[in-house]
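> Could you send the 5-methylcytosine-specific restriction endonuclease McrA prediction when you get a chance?

Sure thing. Input:
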Amino acid sequence: MRETLVLNAGFEPLSTVSLRRAVVLVMQDKAVVEQSHPGLRVRAARVDLPVPQVIRLRRYVRVPFRQRAAWSRRGVLVRDRHRCAYCGRRATTVDHVVPRSRGGGDTWLNTVAACAEDNHRKADRTPAQAGMRLLTQPFEPTPADALVLALGLRDGEALPEWLALPTSA
Ligand SMILES: [Zn+2]
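Output:
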């Protein structure tokens, strides 16, 4: 996957994001293209953009770059793309792998997105006690994930697959 460098409004490098994410940021007027691939454009029905190599955010954002992204329920849902860690269906709740009542904390590594049904079924137990298996292991968001969280991008704003494929001009 082609990566695009993201600069903060003050030109400090923040992170890299996927080309698709970069195009979304430009289309949403959250960023401007500072440097693009010569001769490569992203083309679609209502889009004709140079393929960005470097974009710069229009507004200065405070990003927890090189630091841990602050934990939040919304952040867990975005990190897990609103997919339940137990069944893969749409998740609207956040489950504590080790329940809070057993000392489990509000941390990235102890929380996963879960559908309401599985969250209710697991209740106040660990996955082992509930006889449930995690399909994916929770992880700390990368700086790129942290940037996406800080920009408040919502799930479902990704462009279609085909738009991510640049064509020669
Ligand atoms: Zn589920």
